[in-house]
């Protein structure tokens, strides 16, 4: 079998993270994704550095590594959509595409004839996904939306970080732009659903994705708790609001993470440390009791956890099926034998004449037995595939040269 999405053509008009994350998922699954970028500038994230990619001499280039996080397996072309010939070219490409993904402001592509109504009239089978900060309607629809802003607005920062009365307490963003990433994942799921529905209806459809919607959706159990009780949860550091002990603990030489999720695991933990009576104590015998008596439990556990090193705790508890682990840096994570065994670093060659011979990327976590992810292309140089894509569209060398002369590409 070929790739899962072989034969699907995606016109990617998005930039930064949410849209490109979505289209990279589709590209990894085999879709032919054409990334459209501004001539001379490209996607904003090409310039979001340091850090920058290094050339074969080990010197920094002008290309930021940020771009490589979400643009693997794509072909890059440069088209000026403000130019009439550029607009005509993109409409021609959309007429042959299965999917368009864009993250311009609401109504921003209408002036170029690249909005859903215009393109679906040319191609009724087109699946068109718009990604914005706040959606296509509502009082905030016209506002620009960014991950950090949405992390604050949706409530995520209110449950992230140390409690206000703890050292360093206060609202904190997640260390990765998680709302952008989750929006890209939701968008790719919606697109796959629309493609499946098209098999029955013969028609594409419009998809309205909003960062704020996604930010609220991924509050998960925290939102469910609020909806059930009317009580807004608060920041509590690494403590889990519904499980105990489920957090980090200082050890003799650092920290260890315990993730005890049921009473059996807690009983095995107690036996391992030589305190089996804790598991029989009415205050700690059940998870609900442990949550209610968390302070008393932590007062007992804290001194005990300081008696061993992190490695000693992991060796002791893993042998007894008590979930635990180190708190790694990213460098330590990539050195972890399980990460290496799973091949989570993928090195891809690139020959774009810019001195960058290859780019390291993070493997897709999607493991399909019959249609596996295919790592075909490194994240592309700006405009690397312009001529190739236009030739695929049927343009000859003279037509491509004329477009370049007019600065449409």
TrEMBL record:
Keyword list, A-Z: Transferase
A Pfam family recorded for this sequence: CoA_transf_3
Protein name as annotated: L-carnitine dehydratase/bile acid-inducible protein F
Entry annotated with the keyword Transcription: no
Top-level division of the source organism's lineage: Bacteria
Record's keyword annotation contains Transferase: yes
Gene Ontology molecular-function annotations: CoA-transferase activity
UniProt cross-references to SUPFAM superfamilies, sorted A to Z: CoA-transferase family III (CaiB/BaiF)
């Amino acid at each position: 079998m070929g790739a899962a999405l072989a034969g699907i053509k995606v016109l990617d008009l998005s930039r930064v993270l949410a849209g490109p994350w979505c289209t990279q998922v589709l590209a990894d699954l085999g879709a032919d994704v054409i990334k459209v970028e501004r001539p001379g500038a490209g996607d904003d994230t090409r310039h979001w550095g340091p850090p920058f990619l290094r050339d074969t001499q080990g010197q920094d280039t002008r290309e930021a590594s940020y771009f490589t996080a979400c643009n693997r397996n794509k072909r890059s072309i440069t088209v000026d959509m403000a130019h009439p010939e550029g607009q005509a070219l993109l409409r021609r490409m959309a007429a042959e595409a299965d999917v368009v993904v864009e993250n311009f402001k609401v109504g921003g592509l209408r002036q170029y004839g690249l909005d859903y109504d215009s393109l679906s009239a040319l191609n009724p089978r087109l699946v068109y996904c718009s990604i914005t900060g706040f959606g296509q309607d509502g009082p905030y629809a016209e506002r620009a939306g960014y991950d950090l802003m949405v992390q604050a607005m949706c409530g995520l920062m209110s449950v992230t970080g140390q409690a206000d009365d703890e050292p360093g307490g206060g609202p904190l963003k997640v260390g990765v732009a998680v709302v952008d990433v989750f929006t890209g994942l939701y968008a790719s799921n919606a697109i796959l659903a629309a493609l499946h529905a098209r098999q029955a209806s013969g028609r594409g459809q419009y998809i309205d994705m909003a960062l704020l919607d996604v930010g609220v959706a991924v509050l998960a159990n925290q939102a469910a708790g609020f909806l059930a009780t009317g009580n807004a949860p608060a920041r509590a550091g690494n403590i889990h609001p519904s499980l105990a002990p489920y957090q980090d603990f200082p050890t003799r030489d650092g920290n260890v993470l315990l993730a005890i999720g049921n009473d059996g695991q807690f009983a095995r933990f107690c036996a391992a440390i030589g305190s089996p009576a804790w598991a029989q104590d009415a205050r700690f015998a059940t998870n609900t009791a442990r949550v209610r008596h968390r302070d008393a439990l932590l007062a007992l556990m804290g001194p005990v956890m300081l008696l061993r090193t992190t490695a000693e705790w992991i060796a002791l508890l893993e042998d007894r099926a008590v979930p635990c682990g180190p708190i790694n840096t990213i460098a330590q994570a990539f050195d972890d034998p399980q990460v290496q065994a799973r091949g989570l670093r993928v090195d891809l060659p690139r020959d774009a004449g810019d001195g960058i011979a290859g780019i390291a990327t993070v493997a897709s976590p999607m493991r399909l037995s019959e249609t596996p992810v295919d790592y075909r292309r490194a994240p592309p140089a700006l405009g690397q595939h312009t001529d190739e894509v236009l030739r695929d569209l049927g343009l000859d060398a003279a037509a491509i040269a004329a477009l370049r002369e007019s600065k449409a590409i």
